[in-house]
């Protein structure tokens, strides 16, 4: 989609200095700052199976090892496996490559749930070792905790929710106040298989890297098993400064609606290239056509100043000031310069303006021509009003919104 | 009608009138040919067995010089598949947008996955499955599910919504024989 709308060609500068495309940016109305994925906080708010869309709670997902119990993928081609019934039992078949669970020498099952998977043969030993390491950790940390005055009482209601398994840790700590130390036996070394052994044991079909990655525990001598579908997480976004939620989807994984959405598009002018740039020639003037749309709910005062130098293409156009009406008031005639009175403004259409900028490339620009624009914009104040709707504003507080500015990189290739 | 453009369709076969049939083509009992299927037998005859399904926009083209192209029984040629194979056996599934190149051959119980290609030098052994973007192939134990219900349903439902090739041809041949 972003390729189709050519969003990827124009990068906006985030508050943190990184350049991102407009759909990747969010806006915090309270801090009045643009935020990107690097300077906002992501938080998993829902875990679900991408195939059957069944949601799982966090402990449930941990119990299931973050895999769906009822959905399986083909180990050969990673397509969905479907169940075929025969004599009241089911087996799994890939409709695409015709792999079936019978090829893996699997007995037919009564239902599609909990298809057998390969477990790590060393799982018990691993558990013992981790438990031992935890006990060691406790003993090592005990004097430090005492010094700090932390005595295990400082747990809050936050931990009782057990979202991150803290409760278990607390219980374990309490239990392990006097941990006993039984060193675990070292894992006895086994002979490394020789190349001849591996070739002897190998079945005829060679596996692709993808197939091995899907089931890393299965040896080359064993048949591939149905792959349990890994669960997916849905992320909600918070501002890293004020911790307010910026993006939150509606309850339920099947919906695409948002409960809270504060995308940068709703605030920042949406600037796109309206026409591809002709072939650039050194020393000759070329035109760059931009369309600027105000998608916010209030009128916008916008100045676009082309920046030259520093490795960016030379632009001969003067800075231009525009007053863009809001998308809601789009049927009222737009104030400001009319299209026929300016060289720069190509068209004016409700809340959208078309611009033509002249660029003169030099030899250096031709390999990666990039136009740098400095945009300075300001809303008429209704934006701040709407953000503060939870408290009553005094008349003197209804000031215009702060002026924001951002650098833009336009890729002219 | 000239000798080289003889189309023979069995009485129980359902061939939609939008199908484009050129040259010597024989379609036997129980076949279902959806609209916009192309049979191009201008370079050599095409003999189709019983109970095959040809889905929309499937192209069956004989590119050999006069060699007959033979298709067995109970095959499914899915939407937009292209076949110039000299021989296709029985109970095969040729997937969506799959291509059987000139001169290749497919035996029985094979499946060619969506968008896969069987190259012209290839002769598929029985029960071979061709899959993935790189046209991997292997022998499979899982049979194709060519259920008779699907073709029965199609034979029943298609005539209610489409004009049939056989009907139009019958009228044409009747008037032709009357003129003789
Ligand atoms: Zn950022
Ligand atoms: Zn699932
Ligand atoms: Zn498969
Ligand atoms: Zn904030």
UniProtKB/TrEMBL annotation, chain A:
Assembly: Subunit of dynactin, a multiprotein complex part of a tripartite complex with dynein and a adapter, such as BICDL1, BICD2 or HOOK3. The dynactin complex is built around ACTR1A/ACTB filament and consists of an actin-related filament composed of a shoulder domain, a pointed end and a barbed end. Its length is defined by its flexible shoulder domain. The soulder is composed of 2 DCTN1 subunits, 4 DCTN2 and 2 DCTN3. The 4 DCNT2 (via N-terminus) bind the ACTR1A filament and act as molecular rulers to determine the length. The pointed end is important for binding dynein-dynactin cargo adapters.
InterPro entries: DCTN4 (IPR008603)
Organism: Caenorhabditis elegans
Gene that this sequence comes from: dnc-4
Protein name per UniProt: Dynactin subunit 4
Primary location: cytoplasm
Keywords for this protein: Acetylation, Coiled coil, Cytoplasm, Cytoskeleton, Isopeptide bond, Phosphoprotein, Ubl conjugation
Cytoplasm in keyword set: yes
Entry's localization field: Cytoplasm, Cell cortex; Cytoplasm, Cytoskeleton, Microtubule organizing center, Centrosome; Cytoplasm, Cytoskeleton, Stress fiber; Cytoplasm, Myofibril
Similarity section: Belongs to the dynactin subunit 4 family.
Lineage: Eukaryota, Metazoa, Ecdysozoa, Nematoda, Chromadorea
Database matches in Pfam families: Dynactin_p62 (PF05502)
Superkingdom as given in the UniProt entry: Eukaryota
Gene Ontology CC terms, in alphabetical order: cell cortex; centrosome; dynactin complex; myofibril; stress fiber
């Amino acid at each position: 989609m972003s390729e189709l709308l050519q969003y990827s060609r124009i990068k906006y500068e985030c508050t943190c200095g990184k350049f991102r495309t407009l759909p990747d940016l969010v806006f915090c109305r309270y801090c009045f700052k643009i935020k990107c994925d690097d300077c906002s906080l992501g938080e998993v708010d829902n875990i679900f199976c991408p195939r059957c869309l069944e949601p799982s709670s966090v402990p449930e997902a941990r119990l299931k090892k973050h895999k769906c119990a009822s959905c399986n993928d083909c180990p050969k081609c990673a397509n969905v496996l479907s169940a075929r019934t025969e004599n009241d039992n089911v087996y799994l078949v890939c409709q695409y490559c015709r792999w079936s669970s019978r090829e893996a020498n699997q007995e037919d099952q009564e239902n599609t749930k909990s298809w057998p998977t390969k477990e790590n043969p060393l799982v018990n030993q691993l558990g013992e070792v981790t438990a031992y390491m935890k006990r060691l950790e406790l003993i090592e940390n005990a004097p430090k905790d005492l010094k700090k005055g932390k005595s295990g009482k400082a747990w809050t209601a936050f931990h009782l929710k057990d979202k991150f398994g803290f409760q278990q840790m607390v219980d374990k700590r309490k239990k392990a106040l006097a941990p006993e130390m039984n060193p675990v036996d070292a894992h006895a070394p086994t002979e490394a298989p020789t190349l001849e052994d591996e070739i002897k044991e190998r079945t005829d079909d060679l596996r692709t890297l993808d197939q091995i990655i899907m089931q890393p525990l299965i040896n080359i001598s064993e048949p591939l098993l149905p792959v349990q579908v890994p669960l997916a997480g849905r992320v909600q976004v918070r501002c890293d400064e004020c911790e307010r939620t910026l993006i939150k989807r509606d309850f339920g994984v099947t919906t695409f609606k948002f409960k809270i959405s504060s995308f940068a598009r709703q605030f920042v002018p949406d600037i796109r290239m309206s026409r591809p740039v002709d072939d650039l020639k050194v020393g000759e003037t070329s035109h760059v056509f931009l369309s600027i749309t105000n998608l916010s709910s209030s009128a916008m005062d916008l100045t676009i100043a082309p920046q030259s130098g520093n490795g960016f293409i030379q632009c001969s156009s003067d800075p231009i000031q525009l007053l863009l009406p809001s998308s809601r008031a789009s049927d009222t005639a737009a104030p400001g310069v009319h299209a026929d009175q300016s060289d720069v403004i190509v068209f004016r259409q409700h809340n959208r303006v078309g611009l033509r900028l002249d660029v003169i490339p030099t030899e250096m620009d031709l390999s990666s021509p990039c136009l740098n624009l400095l945009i300075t914009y300001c809303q008429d104040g209704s934006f701040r009003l709407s953000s503060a709707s939870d408290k009553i504003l005094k008349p003197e507080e209804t000031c215009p919104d702060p002026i924001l500015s951002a650098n833009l990189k336009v890729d002219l290739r | 009608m000239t000798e080289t453009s003889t189309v023979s369709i069995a009485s129980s076969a359902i061939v939609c009138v939008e199908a484009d049939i050129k040259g010597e083509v024989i379609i036997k009992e129980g076949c279902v040919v959806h609209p916009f299927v192309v049979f191009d037998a201008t370079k050599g005859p095409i003999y189709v067995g019983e109970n095959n399904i040809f889905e929309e926009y499937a192209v069956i083209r004989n590119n050999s010089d006069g060699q007959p192209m033979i298709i067995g029984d109970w095959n499914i040629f899915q939407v937009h598949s292209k076949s110039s194979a000299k021989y296709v056996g029985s109970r095969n599934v040729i997937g969506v947008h799959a291509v059987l190149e000139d001169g290749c051959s497919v035996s029985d119980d094979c499946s060619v996955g969506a968008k896969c290609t069987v190259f012209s030098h290839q002769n598929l052994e029985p029960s071979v499955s061709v899959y993935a973007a790189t046209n991997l192939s292997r022998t499979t134990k899982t049979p194709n599910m060519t259920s008779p219900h699907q073709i029965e349903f199609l034979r029943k439902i298609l005539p209610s919504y489409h004009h049939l090739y056989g009907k139009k041809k019958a009228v044409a041949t009747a008037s032709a024989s009357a003129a003789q």
